[in-house]
Amino acid sequence: MVNLPNARPVIGRFAPSPTGHLHLGSLTTAVASFCHIKSLGGRWLLRIEDVDFERCKAEYSASILEDLQNLGLHWDGETVYQSNRMAIYEEYIHALHAQTYACQCSRKQLSEHFRQHPKDAISPVIFSEVLRQMNATEGLNTPPIYPRLCLHSHHDIGHPDSKIRLCLPDTLTAFFDGIQGVVWDNPAKSLGDVVIKRQNGMINYILACAIDDGLQNISHIMRGLDIMPMTVAQLAINHAAHLPTADHFYHLPLLHNADGQKLSKQNLAQPIKHARPSELLVHALTLLKQPIADDMADGTVGEILQFAIKHWDTAPLIHQGSLGVV
Ligand code: GLU
């Protein structure tokens, strides 16, 4: 085997938002990314994405940590809490100031604008076939692109009515996804000028996530398919902020409920608290279409994970949009 001298270390992460307890959907993401990274001999980090101070709760963070420990999904290094990193995000917002502007448009003003200019209200064209199909399967209603009403208004960035928008580049951006194949898009045309900080001071997910993945030198990002449309924004942010980007993306098919909705805290997915850890792991691995040994659920979580890491294979997930209905 060729030994590359400066090969980048393999680092993955699980980055839950503590807006609820771990459920089967978030558990399958955790199990998949843990097994994948460990099968590559890498480090698996835990980052609690608790920037949304209105919806995130410390009790949910504690519960997620406890569940991961009980399931044998032990992370490497210290747990990182985004709520402790506000000063870092502010520094990057400052550094990106040439590409940002303050926006004071309220929802009401925007709906009035869209009423008067119906052409602006049309949902953006999704160029990439993968993203288009995903939007169709998930029934996502992509919001119209922000019509840049405040681009030249020079509002004060520190004003309490100001949110900060970042201009994403109007260029073709592509990335290779180890599950979904080649994904390409134009961030300016599909997402527009994204809000990175809200009026209430809250930093938006995509900014914090992009910065932390860069600063933590994450090489492999495995997460739910629902986040895939934001990946081109993440790449653009890392590029603008001179931060490294992940080399490998894997957007996992989602679990759905009987109504065809993605399993999430919003649609009240059941917390996993009451089930036996070994059975839960076997359930997650079955949903992830991984090989299961006889009587596996009778083993310890350590034994199950050892087997799962040894046999981990993304092949059965390739080009899949759903892990099925639970
Ligand atoms: N915090 C996000 C969530 O819980 C996931 C972020 C990511 O993996 O990039 O949905």
Describe the structure.
The chain is of the alpha/beta class and 326 residues long. It is 32% helix and 16% strand. It has one domain (11-325): HUPs (Rossmann fold, 3-Layer(aba) Sandwich). It contains 10 helices and 12 strands. Strands 1-2-3 form a 3-stranded parallel beta sheet. It has a 3-stranded antiparallel beta sheet with strand order 4-5-8. Helix 9 packs parallel to helix 10. It is globular. The model has no long low-confidence stretch (mean pLDDT 92). The protein binds glutamic acid. Glutamic acid (GLU) binds at residues 15-17, 49, 209, 223, 227.
CATH class: Alpha Beta
Tell me roughly what share of residues is in helical segments: 25-40%
CATH homologous superfamily grouping: HUPs
Strand content: 15-25%
Query: Mind describing the biggest β-sheet?
Result: 3 strands, parallel
Q: Distance between the terminal alpha carbons, to the nearest Å?
A: 43 Å
User: How many domain modules?
Assistant: 1
Number of helices: 10
CATH architecture: 3-Layer(aba) Sandwich
Mean pLDDT: 92
Strand order of the largest sheet: 1-2-3
State the CATH topology.
Rossmann fold
What's the total number of strands? 12
Structural class: alpha/beta
* Low-confidence spans: none
Query: What is the general shape?
Result: globular
Identify every distinct bound molecule in the structure, by name, code or SMILES.
Answer: glutamic acid
Q: What string, H for helix and E for strand, traces the elements in order?
A: EHEHEHEHHEEEHEHEHEEHHE
Tell me the Rg in angstroms. 20 Å
